[in-house]
Amino acid sequence: MRTSIATVSLSGSLTEKLTAASRAGFDGVEIFENDLLASPLTPEEIRARCADLGLSIDLYQPMRDIEAVPREEFARNLRRARHKFELMRRLGADTVLVCSSVSPLAVDDDDLAARQLAELAALAQDFGIRVAYEALAWGRHVSTYDHAWRIVAAADHPALGTCLDSFHILSRGSDPKGIEDIPGEKIFFLQLADAPRLAMDVLQWSRHYRCFPGQGGFDVPGLVGHVLHTGYRGPLSLEVFNDVFRQAEAAPTAVDAHRSLLALMETVGAAQLPPPVVPTGVAFAELVTPDSAPVTAQLAALGFARTARHRSKPVDLWQQGDARVLVNTGPGARRDGTQLAAVGLESPDPAAAARRAEALLAPVLPRRRAREDVPLDAVAAPDGTELFFCATGDPELPDWRTDFVQVEDASASPGVTRVDHLALTQPWHHFDEAALFHRTVLGLRAQESVDVADPYGLLRSRAVTNADGSVRIALTVGAAPTDDTVRAQHIALATDDVIAVARRFRDAGGRLLPVPANYYDDLAARHDLPDDELATYRELDILYDRDAHGVFRHCYTTTVGRVFFELVQRDGGYRGYGAPNAPVRLAAQHAAR
Predict the structure, then answer these.
(1) Is the separation of the CB atoms in 142 and 152 below 8 Å?
(2) Residues near 584 by Cβ (< 8 Å), separated by ≥ 6?
(3) Buried (b) or exposed (e) across 128-137, using 16+ Cβ within 10 A?
(4) Which end of the chain is more exposed for a tag (fewer CB within 10 A), N or C?
C-alpha cells in the first residue's frame, strides 16, 4: 500500500518537511494549509518540488466550518471554497479534507448538512476535486464517523466521501467494526494516529499527545483491518499532532513515522517483511573511554578479569561468568568520559536479524575492520547505541571472540553470572521512537511506562524484554536532558548472592553509592525484615523490593563518566527493576556529584 504523512506531523519549513518525508520513503504527503501559507514557494513550485522528490500530494487540509449553516454564511463558505479549489488545482491536489463544523452558527440539521455538502462537492467536481468529510471528535453536532457517513450517504454525490481518522474514532470509544458497512469507494481517505490513554479534554489530547501507530494505547491495527475489509485502496496516511515531534529534527522523525507504518502494514497483512529474530541474550556491553583506569578498577573490584585483547584495536575484554564488558580506548572515545556505546545481542540468525532491521529503516553501520576480523552485522538504535548481532559459541557461525587474543591476567572471581539488564538513556525526543524500534526491529516486548520522581524533574522509563528475560533493556528519558545524572547509563549484573559480591567489591576498594539512613528506617516499616538482615543492607547500601512473584535486592557503584554498575539478585521470579527505589538512587547520585 502507498504511505503518506501530513506535513503538520514534522518540524521545520515546508521544504524541509517534504525532503524528510521523501528521504524516509513516503510515497505522498498531506499539505497542511498553514505550511503552504508560510512557504515562500508558489503552489506551482511546491508541486514541482514534490514531483522532484517523488511525492504525490494526496490531500489538502483542512477546510473548516462549512456545513449546516445559514444561507448567507454558506454563500461565503462557497466563495472561500472556490478560492481553495483554484489553489488546489495549481498545487496538483485532488482531494480536500472538510472537518465537521465546530462553528456556533452551525445547526443540528443533517438534511441541511447533506444538501450543503452536496453543493460543495458539485463545485469541487468542476475543479476535478473530491471532498472527504471527517467527523471531528469534538464536532459541534457531528462527532462520530458513523454520523458523518450517514450525512455523506444522504448527500449522494460522487465527489463526496468520508475521511476516517483513527484518533477521532478511537478516542471516543466508538466501535470501528461499523466501518465495514461503508463502501470502500466512499472512503476517500484514511488518517492514522495512535495516542496514550489519557483522561483529558479530547481536543487537547488530540492537539498535543498523538503519536505514531504502535507508540500509544489504541488498537490502530484493528481499525485498519476493518477499513481494508471494505476494499479501501487509498494510502495509509499519518496525521500526528505532537509537541515533541514538532520540536525534534524532521529527518529522524520521518524515519520513525515510516517505520511505524511498515510495522502496521506487516501486522494487518498488507506488507511482508523479513520476520523478527528475537535476541536470546547479551553477548557484551562495550564501554568507550579516554581513560580506562577508573572503569577497569571498578570491574576488577567487581570480580571481573581482563581475559583478552583485540588483535588490532585498543579494546580489552573483561569477563566474569557470562557477563562480558569490552573497554575501548580507541579514537572514538569521547572526552567527557566513559559511556556505553555498543551492545552485542545474541541472535540465532544474525544475518536475518540485520535484514529485518534494514527493512525497518534501521541505519546499517559500516564497520572498520581488518581483513581477518569476524564480520559482524550492526545497526544504530535511535539513541546512537550500536547494536551488534552475535552468535557467541555457535560452531556454525562466526564468533566475535576469535578477534581477541587471550591474556595472562588473573582469572575472574565467581559471583556475577551474566548481564541482568541494560539501562539506556534516550534523548528527550526519542523515547517513543526507541520503544517502537526495540519492539518492531528486535521483536522485544514493551512493558508499561513508569514515571519516576527525580529531585529535579520526572523521569519516564519503559522496559523492553524477550520472553524469558534473558534480554532486558530499560529505556529512560528525563525532564532535564542536560543533567549528567539523568543522562547516565548503567549495566546491571546478575548475581545469586548480592551481599557477598557487594562486600567483596567494597573490600577491594570499590565505592558503593551511599544510601541515606532514612531509607532503611522506612524499609523496616514497610517490610518485616529480621534486624540482622536489615543491618546488612544498611552496611552495604543494598536496596530492597518485592512484587507478587519474588524479591529484588540491588545496589549501585558510583558513576564513572556516564556509566555505573548495578548488582542485582532476583529471587522467586521477581519481574521488575526496583522502580520504587529509583527516587532514592537518583537523589543519592545527585548528592554524590
Answers:
(1) no
(2) 515, 516, 519, 543
(3) ebbbbbbbbb
(4) C
